[in-house]
Amino acid sequence: MAKSILKNSFSLCRNLNSPDKFGIDAIGCLTDNPNLYFYYVIDGHGGCPNSDILVKNFQAYVLSLKDTFTQLNNTAQDIQNFFKSLIENFYIEHRGKLRPAAMSILMVIFSPTQIYSAHLGDCRLGKINNKQQINWITYPHNLAMSLNSHTDPQNIEIALRSSIQDNIVTKSFNTRKLKPLSLMTFDIDKTATYILASDGFWKLPENEIKTIIYSNKLSKDSLLFDDISLWGISFI
User: Which pTM was predicted?
Assistant: First the structure.
């Protein structure tokens, strides 16, 4: 049973106020399946009008799938089909509407032995191991990543945080054209804490990331320059 493997989950979402910003970050989950947990984070693109509405509509749409998720089988094919159906049907409902709204999405389903992820844009899945080392598992769909795709992993992380192209998203969800999800499957590491995060969080200094994850809150000294959405999840 999935309920028996979950040790802890916490969420954090902070949105900054700005007169020229249209997007918001958001989080959500579905947990009524006896074998699976579904979590997601969203980053509505601040430069695109109506992105905040698109984000809120996505949250409402996911909640409407509660019964569907409760009956979802714990197989790789069914889980991947769930991701694809979710994003395709949400796109069909909003096709041609709210333009030019756009958002980055990361969706993750945890089973007792596997992790399934699906993403569009620059939200990321990562983990902190029992030696407090951070490893980002998925990579963002942005221009900095495209220009550094053949760079070694350590230098890629530097480029993703310091390049002038790190905020140019190349493959996000919008209502003009549906782009294919990036789907991945991993073995679960029950000694690690998993992180689902928008770029406002994963671009923070590593020490601040650890402080927030281990304290389950922002410190009074946290300096945020962007909205953040975050799930931290650990297992028995």
Answer: 0.91
